[in-house]
Amino acid sequence: MWLTHHRNSATCLAKLVKLLGNATVTDKAVGASLVGFSLLLFTYYSIWVIVLPFVDADHVLHQYFLPREYTVILPGVAALVVLLCIGAFVGAVMLKNRKPKKVD
Length: 104
Fold this sequence. Notes:
Layout: H1 9-21, H2 25-51, H3 70-97
């Protein structure tokens, strides 16, 4: 919403830097750990899906990865969990904000 109040990108960037400057050390540590975990997960999954099919089946690298059928199953389960969490959140917000019916 604050982006709509500024006309040029330099002002928007300055405002963003100011907002990020207000983050506490804990916020920055949590953010850095989330970025690190995401990078690690992306690298692991990319090697698993892109590189591993070209490596011989008896190579030692295969012992660090799950069987290939899980390359589809795990992201599907993760997507299902994310959708269920979003649905639960939306449902909880709708229940919390519903207005009582008027009695005539």
